[in-house]
Amino acid sequence: MGRMSREFPIGRTPPDWLVRNLRAQPAPVNWPAVARAAIAIALPLAIGLAAGRPAYGALAAMGALNGVISDTAAAYRVRIPTIAIPQLFGAVGVTVGALVYGHGWVAVAAVTGVALVSGMISTIGAVASAAGLVLLLTCVVGAGLPMPGEWWLAPLLMSGGGLLVLALALLAWPLRSGVPERAAVADTYRAVAELLAAGGSGSTPAYDDARHAVTQSLNQSYDIVLAHRARHHGRSPELARLLAQLNAITPVVEAAPAARLSGSPLPPEVPEAVRHLASAVESGYTGPIGLRLPTPTTETARAVDHALRHAAEVVAGRDVDPRGTDDRLGRPAALSVRAARAARDVALSAASWRYGLRLALCIGIAQALVSLIPVPRSYWVALTITFVLKPDFGSVFSRALLRALGTVAGLVIAAAVLAEVPRGWWDVPVLLLLAPLIPAFTPRGYGYQTAAITPVILLLSDVLNRAGTALLLPRLVDSLMGCAIALVAGYLLWPESWHTRVGDRLADAVQDTARYVEGAFGPDAVDPPARARMRRRLYRNLSAIRTEFQRALTEPPPTGRRAAAWWPLVVAVERIVDATTAARVRVKHGATPPSAAEVTQVARQLRELAQGVREAETLYEVRTDLTGPADSVLEPLRQEVAAARAIASPH
Question: In Å, how far are 102, 173, 377 from 106, measured between CA atoms?
Fold first, then answer.
C-alpha cells in the first residue's frame, strides 16, 4: 500500500475493490494453446478465401473461437468432452437462432427460452457450463445475423471449426499419452514440498498460501485422474498407479499441520525428498528411490518420516496395491454425472431455476429492447449479457466492469486493424497475430480476455457484413447496454447476488469439522479411508470459501467491506481443521487418545461456533467450558476454537 500511496496523491488512491478487479493474475503462457488458437482460427478463413467463400470461412473461424474458449483441460481424454460437447450444443443453438431470424417477437421468445435452458444446465458442472455458454452464444448470433447458404450449413461450419481445435489438441496424444496426468500429480507433490518448507519458515501467511495451493492442486489432480479412471472402468494400470500415488501423498499432507504445530521446523531434507519423489512421478520412474532423511526423534517427526517412506514405496513400486486405489476424495468436482440424473437435479434445483430465470430475464429484456429500438448489430447486447452473467465466472458486477473496460481496449486494437489493414488475404496474417492473444490473456483475467477476443470477433464480423470501422461505435454502445442490463436486471434486482455467502459457508465448514472430530476420535470413529474423505471434503470446501471470499472482495461497498470482515475467521477455521488433523496424526503415532467426554465437549464447542457464525450473533452467551487437560492432544484444537470464538465476537 505504501507504493500505491506514492503513485497516487492522497485522496485520489483508487478503491481497493477496483485495484483487485484490474490487477492481472499471474499465469504461465500455455504455448501449445497459443499455437492451436492461431492455426484453428486463421486456417478456416484462409480456406474460405481460397474457395471464394470468405463468409463460410468466417463462420468456421467463429466456431473455432468457441473451441478455443472451451479448450481449458490439460489432459487429452478430458479435452474430448470439454471441446466436443459444447460444439454439439452450439450447432443446436445456431440452428434455432437461424430459424427464428427476422421473426420479431417469436425470435425474442425463442432466444429467451434458450437462455433459460442455458442458465439451468450451466449449473451442472464445467463441461455443461461451457455447453450452455456456447448454446446461447450461437443462438444469439444465429438470431442476429443472416446465415449464408442452407439452414444446415451454418451449424456444420461452426461445429467443424470447433472440432478443428479438438483435432489439433489431440495431435500429440499418441506421443504424450499420460504426460499431463503425471505432470499434474508431480505438481501436487511439489506443492506439498512447498507446504512442508513453509511450515518451518515462521511465516503464517506463507503457510496458509501454501496449504491453499496444495488443496487446489489435489483437487485438480484427483479430478483429472478419477475422471479418466471412471472412463476406463479401472482397467488402466497407469491411471490406477497415479491414483495410488495421490493417495500416498495424503498422509504427508495430514502430517504437515502436526509438524507446524510442534514448534520445531522440519529439516530441509524433508521437502527436498518430496521434490525428489515429484521428479520420479513425472518421469514415470519405477525402481529404488533413496531418500536421505534424518532419524526422527519425536512423534510428529515419526509421522512425517513414516508418511514419506510409504509414499516412496508407492512411487517406486511397479505393481499397484488395490488397497491404495480407493477413492480418497469422493466424487470430484469436475466429474460429470449421468445425463438422466443431471436433468433431474437441474429440474428440481431451486438454484438452477433461479439462475436460469435471471439469465432469461436479462436476455428477454435485451431482445425486447432491440426489437423496439433500432440498434445496429443488436445481437452484441445479448452476447455481452451471456458472458457477464455466467454463474461460475465470478462476480457479475466485476465482470460487467471488466467487460466494458476490456471492450474499449479491444476496440482500440480493432480500430487500427479495420482502418489500416486491407480486407481479404491480409486478414489471415492479422488473425495469426491476434488469435494467440486469447489463450495467452484469458488466465490473466476477464478484462484481458475481453480485450483479446473483441478485435478477433470484430474482424470476423466484418468479413460477414463488410461494415469496416462502422462496426466500432455500435459494438461499444451494445456492450455498454448489455453491461447495464446485466447490472440492473441480473445483479441489483437479486439481493442474493450482492450479499456474500462467506458466513453461511464458514458455518457449514465448522459444522463439518465437528463431525470430523467425532469421526476421528469419538466412540463411533470411522475407518481411515472415510476419515480421509471427510478431511479432503473439508479442505475442498475451505478452498471454495476462499474463492468466494476473493470474489466478494471485488464487489463495491458495502459487499466488499463486509466480506473483508470475514477474513480473520476464514483463516481461524482453516487452522481449526489443521489442528484436528494434527491431533489425529499425533494419536496415530503414539500420543494418548482423548477421552470420550473431551471429544464431546470439543464437538459441542464447534457446533456452538457454527451456530454463532450462521446467526452472526455474539458468542458470549455460549457457556460450553473451553478448558481441559493441558497435556491433551486436543489442547491445540481448543486454543484454535477459542481464538475463532474471540474473532467471531464483536467485542
Answer: 9, 45, 19
- Residue 64: all three cell numbers together: 473455432
Cell numbers at 562, concatenated: 463486509
User: Quick one: 187 and 159 in the same domain?
Assistant: no
Torsions phi, psi for 598 (to 5 deg): -70, -40
Q: CA–CA distance from 331 to each of 1, 212, 222, 227, 612 (Å)? A: 42, 20, 9, 9, 30
Query: What nine digits make up the cell of 75?
Result: 489432459
Q: Does 345 fall in a domain?
A: no
CA distance 496 to 492: 9
Q: Are residues 378 and 318 in the same domain?
A: no
Residues 47 and 72 in one domain: yes
Query: C-alpha 80: how far from its chain's center?
Result: 19
Neighbours of 633 (CB within 10 A): 21
Q: What is the DSSP string of 37-71?
A: HHHHHHHHHHHHHHTT-HHHHHHHHHHHHHHHHH-
517 and 552, same structural domain? yes
Cα(422)–Cα(251) distance, rounded to whole angstroms?
62
**Above 90 in pLDDT, residue 91?**
yes
**Average pLDDT over every residue of 590-602:** 86
Domain membership of residue 93 as a residue range = 27-173+351-492
CA distances from 384 to 353, 400, 558 (A): 21, 9, 26
Residues 62 and 142 reside in one and the same domain: yes
Cα–Cα distance, 5 to 3 (Å, whole number):
5
Half-sphere exposure (CA, 13 Å, Cβ side) for 302?
10
Please check whether residue 169 lies inside any domain of the structure: yes
Q: What is the distance between the alpha carbons of residues 104 and 185, in angstroms, rounded to a whole number?
A: 53
Q: What DSSP line would sit under 5-34, residue for residue?
A: HHHS-TT-PPPHHHHHHHSPPP----HHHH
| Angle made by CA atoms 626, 630, 635, in degrees to the nearest 5 | 60
Instruction: Return the residue matching grid coordinates 478448558.
Output: 627
Mean pLDDT, the chain, rounded, equals: 81
Residue 558, Cβ density class (10 Å: 0-12 exposed, 13-18 middle, ≥19 buried): exposed
> What grid cell was written down for 408?
474499449
The pLDDT of residue 448 is above 70:
yes
Domain match, 510 and 378 both: no
One domain, residues 84 and 220: no
Indicate the burial class of 4 (C-beta count within 10 angstroms; 0-12, 13-18, 19 or more). exposed
Spatial CA neighbour of 587 closest among 540, 542, 636, 536: 636
Predicted TM-score of the model (pTM): 0.75
Cα–Cα distance, 633 to 648 (Å, whole number) = 25
Q: Of 112-121, 293-302, 338-347, which gets the smallest average pLDDT?
A: 338-347
What is the DSSP code (8-state) at residue 443?
G
Listed residues 459, 474, 492: the one ending a domain: 492
